[in-house]
């Protein structure tokens, strides 16, 4: 809107900007309110709704005060060079605001009204560019300092420890420990059977040697 607005263009020069601003507010306010209220338990959603209303009204009041001050300062700075040809009393009245300039009666009224309109548009453009700068800074701050999405992590250590402590791995470990014992017992049993079959025991064979 700051680039398209003009005195001769009238309301049509800011219609596209007003439509874009209204569409953006309509698409963002309802989801943002829903996100704020649903962030708290059901019994505390009234507090979230009240806080949302307070911050919205405070931001609106602060924005109106800030941008209004910029517009007023821009209007006065822009109209001063245009008042050189007007009487002092008329010029002082016009500096107070565009409404006072329009209400000024007399022969130079049409020229004074056009000068006030041009000055008001200049101040309005300065206010709009100030709002753009503030919103850009806030947007950058939200991107940098805002909540970041949680990155999924792969629990490699825990999975290894879990797999090692599973029942299957435990049984395999016991089998590895018990395997030498079973082998020794089977060898001793085979020796006893062989000794019985030959009629001599291992002790006798040792003595014979």
Task: Give the overall form.
Answer: rod-shaped
User: Uncertain spans, ≥5 residues at pLDDT below 50?
Assistant: 158-172, 202-209
Mean pLDDT: 77
How much strand?
under 5%
**What percent of the residues sit in helical stretches (DSSP H or I)?**
over 70%
User: What is the string of SSEs from the N terminus onward?
Assistant: HHHHHHHH
Count of discrete alpha- or pi-helical segments spanning 4 or more residues: 8
Give a verbal description of the structure:
The protein has helices at 12-38, 45-79, 88-95, 98-103, 109-145, 156-164, 167-198, 202-208. The protein has 209 residues and is mainly alpha-helical. α1 runs antiparallel to α2 (45-79). The longest helix is centred in the middle third of the chain and has 37 residues, at 109-145. Mean pLDDT is 77; it is low at 158-172 and 202-209.
Features:
209 residues, 8 helices
Topology of this structure?
Layout: H1 12-38, H2 45-79, H3 88-95, H4 98-103, H5 109-145, H6 156-164, H7 167-198, H8 202-208
Helix pairs in contact: 1-2, 2-5
Provide a brief overview of the structure.
With 209 residues, the protein is an all-alpha fold. The protein has helices spanning 12-38, 45-79, 88-95, 98-103, 109-145, 156-164, 167-198, 202-208.
């Amino acid at each position: 809107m700051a680039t398209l607005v003009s005195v001769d263009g009238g309301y049509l020069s800011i219609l596209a900007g007003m439509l874009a601003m209204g569409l953006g507010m309509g698409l963002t306010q309802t989801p943002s309110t829903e996100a704020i209220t649903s962030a708290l338990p059901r019994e505390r959603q009234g507090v979230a709704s009240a806080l949302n209303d307070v911050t919205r009204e405070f931001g609106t009041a602060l924005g109106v005060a800030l941008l209004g001050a910029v517009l007023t300062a821009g209007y006065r700075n822009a109209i001063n060079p245009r008042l050189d040809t007007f009487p002092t009393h008329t010029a002082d009245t016009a500096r107070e605001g565009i409404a006072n300039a329009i209400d000024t009666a007399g022969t130079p009224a049409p020229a004074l009204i056009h000068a006030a309109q041009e000055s008001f548009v200049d101040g309005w453009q300065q206010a709009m560019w100030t709002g753009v700068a503030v919103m850009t800074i806030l947007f950058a701050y939200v991107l940098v300092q805002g909540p970041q999405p949680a990155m999924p992590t792969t629990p490699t250590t825990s999975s290894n420890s879990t797999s090692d402590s599973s029942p299957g791995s435990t049984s395999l470990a016991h089998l590895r420990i018990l395997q030498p014992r079973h082998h020794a017992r089977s060898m001793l049993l085979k020796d006893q059977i062989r000794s019985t079959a030959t009629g001599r025991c291992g002790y006798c064979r040792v003595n014979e040697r």
